[in-house]
Amino acid sequence: MPSPQSYPLPAKIPLSCALEGKALLTTPTFNKGSAFTATERETFALEGLLPSTIQTLDQQVQRAHGQYNASGTDIAKNAFLTSLKAQNEVLYYALLARNVKEMLPVVYTPTEGEAIEKYSSMFRRADGCFLNVLEKEKVERLLAEWGGEDEVDYIVVSDGEEILGIGDQGVGGIGISIAKLVLMTLCGGLHPNRTLPVVLDCGTNNSDLLNDELYLGLHQPRVRGKDYDDFLDTFVQAVRKLFPKATLHFEDFGLGNARRLLGKYRPEMACFNDDIQGTAVVTMAAITAAAWVTKTEVRDLRVLVYGAGTAGMGIADQFRDSVIEGGKSKEEAVKQIWLVDKQGLLLDSSSTLTPAQKTYACADSDFTSVDTKDLTSLVRAIKPHVLIGTSTHPNAFTESVVKEMSTHVPRPIILPLSNPTRLHEARPSDLLTWTDGGALVATGSPFPPVTLEKTGKTYDIAECNNATAFPGIGLGAVLSRANRVSDKMLLAAIRAIAEHAPALKDPDAPLLPDVADVRNVSKDVACAVIRCAVEEGLARVAGIPEGEEGEGGLKMWVGMQMWEPEYRPLKKVKPEESSRAAKGELGVGRRG
User: Fold this and answer.
1) Was domain 274-561 assigned CATH 3.40.50.720?
2) What PANTHER family does the record tag this protein with (predicted)?
3) Residue 213, class by beta-carbon neighbours within 10 Å (0-12 exposed, 13-18 middle, 19+ buried)?
4) Catalytic annotation on 108?
5) Fold for domain 20-109?
6) Is 275 a known ligand-binding residue?
7) Each residue of 324-373: pLDDT tens digit?
8) Which of 93, 108, 119, 154 does the annotation list as catalytic?
9) Where do the domains of the chain lie?
């Protein structure tokens, strides 16, 4: 086995620690609670500060799970987990890792959306970096407090304008930055003390927040135009200067800014937008798996996207790129994609289209005899193989729509992706009933298995959960120190996820891997991304293994750098000779 020095971010060696006593017990990176060994208690001045019984991590998880279950409602469980994370990071992630399917909806969608809505009223302890548009001159100094250029790997930033289908949440957007980084660690193995959640407080247009005296953000309407752009650019340039090796992840920006900002900064640095690219990658993985199941070429599919916002446009672009990869021209690929928004099918004559939407606008003359605002009529005219919902228009995929689709396609691919659950375009039970089990379905939120009354057959429902995509992409970008996240990296990630689809072994099984297997999926996605980074000359790390499997191969190289929720031995070091990591100052804002 290669020595630990072969791995830029080793995750299996002892941790240097300069803290002791209560300072150690209140630092979540190092705290082990009742699991500190007798030697550690003596070495780090913990004797008398802990009960005498020494317990294992498994025992601690058992107790924490009981406390979690006793919390009652999902929002109370979310608050319990938030508190646990602030006390003991290893225990927090160990609890989540052992109960991924049970707890993912609590730490992420849909419960995290409620927690963000209630951010100010539930506030107890600040976490993350808060930057506001009225103090642009402080941005670089405040970011610098979080570490040096080799101490921050991944940054998630939101301006809180379009959160999880619930809209403008202002400063509560810090919650989505934190939640995404939890998934980066839980699912992708990023070191939690080397990540940075940020919210850009630009005001809010949410009248409920503006009228709430407990609201913690700026009590003013959102800043727009040049002042907003200057603030964003100040932030991005500070990130590039202070953390040149880090990947920047944009999250839940409004429709008017998300694509624009990604387009502006993507050529300059390693950056990623999960709403656009992550959603598109996991959706395209589901479509790819479905194409393999139906023995159809992706390049030949017709796709109708219902909802031409940030997510819908990202999916359209990713499908276009996949068709181009299959050998067709951009012009040919675009003609296989139809977009429907509030005004109906996007047409050349539409006066409110964004530049990105205009790419997919259809000629009016092709639809003169079609009601372009009626989804059933559009399905009849277009005959799509794939129907995707990103509209937040509940129950839009009616029985009429689905049965019309089934008359043209033996196994229609139907993906109602809007979340939270109440905003889904259709329920899986209805889709499978209306198609006699023929539909290939994946949803944007978790749904229970469906048993058809007619046949008695039970179908597990695939979830188009971005957690199977962005953690692996981010891990690959971090470990290769890629200076950009390229289109080829995203295409490689799609294939890696699709190859894990249970449907490849059973055509009635889910189109996407279960979230319980997400760590393995993330490792394969990271390997695919790293290979692309090396091939394209974008990697900035030397010594990346060329081989894939076996001792010394790429998979081992990735795995040895993935942080695991397990207690590592602590090595005592002197404060005056220690790093910021040893002082517990990474992942927390400490003036240095």
Assistant:
1) yes
2) MALIC ENZYME-RELATED, NAD-DEPENDENT MALIC ENZYME, MITOCHONDRIAL
3) exposed
4) yes
5) Hemocyanin, N-terminal domain (1.20.1370)
6) yes
7) 999 999 999 999 999 999 999 999 998 889 888 999 999 999 999 999 99
8) 108
9) 20-109, 274-561
